[in-house]
Amino acid sequence: MHKWARDKEHSKPIIQRSLDLGINFFDTANVYSFSRSEEILGRSIKDFARRDEVVIATKVHGVMRSGPNGGGLSRKARYIGVSAMWVWQFQKAQHIAERHGWTTFVSMQPLYNLVYREEKREMVPL
């Protein structure tokens, strides 16, 4: 899908090395490489780690197919978080969830972040 995306053969050693170095948080999404990202990560975790020792964050917005578990919140989740919103929106959503007795969010991925771009050796805002 993207020229920087890697297949299972190239991804598994990277995931294994990450685990060996103590990384235990992985962020993916059902729409990354048409779910291949989740599949490769899941199989790698099964091969190289204990599932209860890692945190896997994924997104559920994108619809991958019609029918049950094809997208959205029909997919199994232990906790929920949000991304790409302003802090005031997060606070409002959290307050509404608390007021109605709904599940509250445990994390937020900020709207803006910084990434180091190696080829230009500079920090760039996303």
Describe the structure.
Helix 1 (8-20) crosses helix 2. 32% of the residues lie in helices and 16% in strands. The protein is globular, with a radius of gyration of 17 Å. The longest helix has 14 residues, at 87-100. The strands form three sheets. A two-stranded parallel ribbon has the order 1-2. Strands 3-4 form a two-stranded parallel ribbon. It contains three helices and six strands; from the N terminus they run αβαββαβββ. By secondary structure, the protein is of the alpha/beta class. Strand 3, helix 3 (87-100) and strand 4 form a beta-alpha-beta unit.
User: What separation lies between the terminal Cα atoms?
Assistant: 20 Å
Largest sheet: 2 strands, parallel
User: Can you tell me the overall shape?
Assistant: globular
Structural class: alpha/beta
Tally of alpha and pi helices: 3
Q: What is the C-alpha radius of gyration, as a whole number of Å? A: 17 Å
The stretches of 5 or more residues where confidence is low (pLDDT under 50) are none
Residues in helices, as a percent range: 25-40%
Q: Whole-number average pLDDT?
A: 81
> Strands across the major sheet, in which order?
1-2
The total count of strands amounts to 6
